[in-house]
Amino acid sequence: MNADITGYWQANIRLVSILLVIWFVVSYGFGIILADPLNAIKIGGVGLGFWFAQQGSIYTFVVLVFFYAWRMNSLDREFNVQED
Amino acid sequence: MDLSTLTYIVVGITFLLYIGIAIWARAGSTGEFYVAGKGVNPIANGMATAADWMSAASFISMAGLIAFNGYGASVFLMGWTGGYVLLAMLLAPYLRKFGKFTVPEFIGDRFYSKTARLVAVICLILASVTYVIGQMKGIGVAFSRFLETSYEMGLVIGMGIVFIYAVLGGMKGITYTQIAQYCVLIFAYTIPAVFISMNLTGDWLPQLGLIGMMADGSGMTMMEKLDTVVQDLGFNQYSTQVMGSKLNMFVYTLSLMIGTAGLPHVIIRFFTVPKVKDARSSAGWALLFIAILYTTAPAVASMARLNLMETIQIGPVGEQTGNLEYAQAPTWFKNWEKTGLLKYEDKNGDGRIQYYNDKNPDMVAKAEAFGWKGNEMVKVDRDIMVLANPEISGLPNWVIAIVVAGGLAAALSTAAGLLLAIASAVSHDVIKGMINPNISEKNELMASRLSMVGAIALAGYLGFNPPGFAAGTVAIAFGLAASSIFPVLMMGIFAKRINSQGAIAGMIAGISITLLYVFQHKGIFFIPGTTFLGDMGPNWFFGISPNAFGAIGALVNFAVAIWVSKITPETPQHIQQLVEDIRVPKGAGTSTGH
Asked: Which pick of B12, B211, B470, B549 has the fewest CB atoms within 10 Å?
């Protein structure tokens, strides 16, 4: 494995780790573990914990996947490993 | 025009559309049959994936599950969407780079072992067959309820339609019909949702209605109102009731997420796009198209529940006139009684309907003082929440007809995707991969069509004779996929040192412990009376329900695979090279397998 590809793989792992931390926090964190305290804060007519569990986490997931696709495509070009 | 004629016309038009697409998108090669020639646009694939993914359960049953479980049902919403994050970041682009036709083929090549491939085929078939039974039942039920045919007749018509486009077009035919089916089902789901939200809250967007104010001038938010109404009748507070425990919810969500990412019929959809970067964006589009339904469902659920409660409890709890007189019940109420989905029994003989929670001791004490003799809505099927929605909102008959077509589209599209996953595992992994490697392209295409015929026949048989355990099996299919397929795929890409012994031991250990846990609480092979621990909360491991156990099975799979790989010989050099090659997009090309 040459240095460039090692760098590409490390950058990829770093990106995925950060995104999966967010994935975990919005669903398991805000939606389940911290739902009760968060419900004290209201977003419109519902508690924030409830909202994350039934709405917010899903919106975040969509953004995460598109962000990942966009960021990986630019990493491909940066490390010159994109498809021909 | 009466409802039944209209429903025939709308369903007939959608079926003609599917058949037309089938004739247009015939498969001419194995590449087209297995992966649609790898030429599907990523947005189109996203739409097809969404239809592939959203089954009769998502379309018809999920809103009802949420309506009666409130916050606790969030596990389904997060679990069935969050899996796409895992799929997009950990599997899809790499499996697309690998560029073959099936999931077991990747496992066989990466772990340089026909045994690994065979174990993967068995896990795939177990998970997919349990899943397809539910779809076939959904098709039969939808027909018998709305088109007044027998259940069997409905099943045969459904099988016939799938037969035409799946056998003729393989993945290519399925892809383009799924796109059409997505359009039908999302239209059918959102139209009644918009109307119910407008009626109740004045917000046309259901996602805003969910957090909005009531339009009745009461000054309450929709959720406050719902919480008050259900609690007044002794039910759990909607916005806080948990499913089992917080720990059970955590593990259940994790099982559904890992299971989603490990379901072969979803994974193979990402083999159909031209490039690695298309696989990445396609996962985003798929999730976006799914999210449209999944963020609407909680709004439909809460509003339909509120409508149902308020239809029956028309005034203050405890006052005689607070309860609806049965003679005054709306037409939709009477219509759904005929189907058996709603059932009313006048226990105290006052001619009015009392609908409350008679399992709640405080409520029972109050009810006795009111002269109530038990909950009189003896059956409220959860499916009613979606099916009766258009009538409750007073929408015209054509909307009801479209909801029927939407339910059928959801069931047919998922059934076809599952059948393709099963058929390609049989023809490509077993027949070509193990029995006759020198089979010609033409004969393999013939074999794949015959496998599809076989898979449809098997699914049809199971639809006619649903095994006793069929009701709760979809959740178990997720457990099986989570505990067997997802972990080895992920380790195959991210951990070079996992060798064939580790992968095989991991898959077997993961799926075995999951099945064992399910069997010990639900009976060996679901035979009643053979449970040795009983299907009861107190005996569950840390209160984890059997349906939620897949995540534990997946952890066991990971642990066993890592440990066995440590004490057995290192992965060969050429396999390490293969893994490095999968990790970079360069050089993917559009080539097919072999």
From this structure: B12
Is residue B351 a part of any domain in this protein? no
User: Looking at residue B571, what is its pLDDT?
Assistant: 95
Helix (H, G, I), strand (E, B) or coil at B340: coil
Among B54, B74, B87, the strongest candidate for a mutation testing the A interface, having the largest count of A CBs within 10 A, is B74
Q: Which of A1-15, A16-30, B135-149, B391-405 has the highest mean pLDDT?
A: A16-30
Tokens of B343: 């059932």
DSSP string, B126-150: HHHHHHHHHHHHHHHHHHHHHS---
Q: Where in the sequence is the domain holding A58, given as residue range(s)? A: 2-78
Tell me the chain A residues in contact with residue B284 when contact means C-beta distances shorter than 8 Å: 62, 65-66, 68-69
The closest alpha carbon to B301, from B71, B471, B142, belongs to B71
Number of structural domains chain A divides into: 1
**Tokens 């009015």, located at residue:** B352
Complex ipTM: 0.96
Q: Cα–Cα distance between B31 and B34 in angstroms, integer? A: 5
Separation CA B472–CA B478 (nearest Å): 11
Contact A50 B77 (CB under 8 A): no
User: Which of A36, A55, A62 minimises the CB distance to B284?
Assistant: A62
- Domain-located, residue B375: no
The shortest C-alpha distance from B186 to chain A (Å) reads 17
| B315 in any annotated domain | no
Domain that holds residue B473: 3-28+36-303+392-583
Is position A53 within any domain?
yes
Return the CATH number at B476: 1.20.1730.10
Domains of chain B: total: 1
pLDDT score of B56? 82
Nearest CA in chain A to B287: A62
What's the pLDDT tens digit per position in A46-57? 999 999 999 999
Inside any domain, residue A83: no
Which pLDDT does position B126 carry in this prediction?
Answer: 87
Q: What pLDDT, in 10s, does the model give residues B319-359?
A: 888 999 999 999 888 888 887 888 999 999 999 999 999 99
Residue A84 lies in a domain: no
- Whole-number pLDDT of residue B337: 87
Residue B342 lies in a domain: no
Nearest chain B residue to A18, by CA: B89
Taking a C-beta distance cutoff of 8 angstroms, is the pair B469, B536 a contact? no
- Three-state secondary structure call for residue B221: strand
Question: Is residue A74 in some structural domain?
Answer: yes
